[in-house]
Amino acid sequence: MKINVIGGEMSRQEIDYCLKHISDKYKGRQVEQADLTIDGEFVDIKVRFKDTDFQHAYRSADYLVNSMEKMNDAKQSEFYDKLRHKV
Questions:
Q1: Is the dihedral of CA 43, 48, 51, 56 positive or negative?
Q2: How many Cβ atoms are within 10 Å of 22's Cβ, its own excluded?
Q3: What tens digit of pLDDT does each residue of 4-53 get?
Q4: What's the gap between Cα 85 and its chain centre?
């Protein structure tokens, strides 16, 4: 993984802390590059992933979820009962 520190310097410990945050937040994704931009006392993190393939999203009550387990039983039933159209 390529790491870019922008706007100042960071210790190895600070970089490791940011990398742990990235790996906890994006479990299962392969990070290609991380840009760590120092903004005063804060660090802005921008991440670029290796796996840029589209992940399936399910629509539920006008919002998108990436897993059927996040829907309640009624929404899961509604999803399975929908009429499918050929794309």
A1: positive
A2: 17
A3: 999 999 999 999 999 999 999 988 888 889 999 998 888 999 998 886 55
A4: 29
**Which amino acid, 70?**
K
Pairing of strands 2-6, 31-39: parallel
- DSSP strands (E only) in 30-87: 31-39, 42-49, 58-60, 63-65
Pairing between β-strand 31-39 and β-strand 42-49 as defined by DSSP bridges:
antiparallel
Q: Which residues contact 56 (CB under 8 A, 6 or more apart)?
A: 66
Q: What H or E segment, with its residue span, contains residue 6?
A: strand 2-6
Element (H, E) at 75: helix 73-81
Higher-scoring residue by pLDDT: 62, 44: 44
Alpha carbon distance 49, 22 (integer Å): 11
